[in-house]
Hints:
Blueprint: H1 2-13, H2 16-45, E1 52-53, H3 54-61, H4 68-87, H5 91-94, H6 100-136, E2 144-145, H7 150-179, H8 182-203, H9 213-226, H10 230-257
Parallel strand pairs: 1-2
Protein name: ABC transporter permease
Keywords: Membrane, Transmembrane, Transmembrane helix
Organism: Rhizobium halophytocola
Amino acid sequence: MSALYRAELLKLFRQPSILFWGFLAPPLAAILFKAALEGMVFLRAGRTLGGGDLLQSAARSLAISGNSVAQLLFAIAISTVFFAEYRHATWRLMVPRAARGALWAAKLLACLTCLGASLIVAAAGDLATNILFALTGAGGLASLIVDPGGLPLLAGQFCISLAELAVLAAVVSAITIIARSMIAAVISAFLLALGATAVQVYLAGKLPVVPMPYYGAQALRNWLSSGADAVIGANGLLVLAVWLVVPAVVGYVAFQRQQLAVE
């Protein structure tokens, strides 16, 4: 299993366009947007928005996992990892050498590793941006706060965001396997992100948590950061767990039963 996992990572490293545009572009775009916003404020008002608690700001930056545009780029990268084997007809060469379950798990773990790295880039970029603009302000580094108590919050937000992206990976990989199509998986994932808003309009106030991945993750974030009702946090965790387990099982079973004579 470890050898398959390393092999999948090596495949990704040999495809820098997928790594950059699929996994690195979303956090880098968020960093550049924040830097541009800070720069505009500095040029117009002669001051910066920098300052405050560094760790809390980094924790908030991890909410990129719920951004619909970021999810679209992530979905393209995740689907490419699985669809490449159908496109190049290499499954038939890989299946005789390893168990199907191990192949599926190695690809999914490789995607989760890259998604986790994207979140780390987002948090690190937020820290660097805050420090850079604090240096340009009148208060300097003294305007920044580093509260060690924010480390559990940062770790918790990282886990929640990674779980939200794991749901995306499970859904996209399952659709890619079933449809043998990257476009079908990417469009479905994007519609899922957009459809969450429509579902929220109809079900808001009727349920403790809207049963969509974004709102499940948001409920967990609210519970973690502001001490919201523990029941709401538990419901959010349940929503994410269902959305993670069901597509993962569907994708796993479909791949186990799939005919791969010519793929």
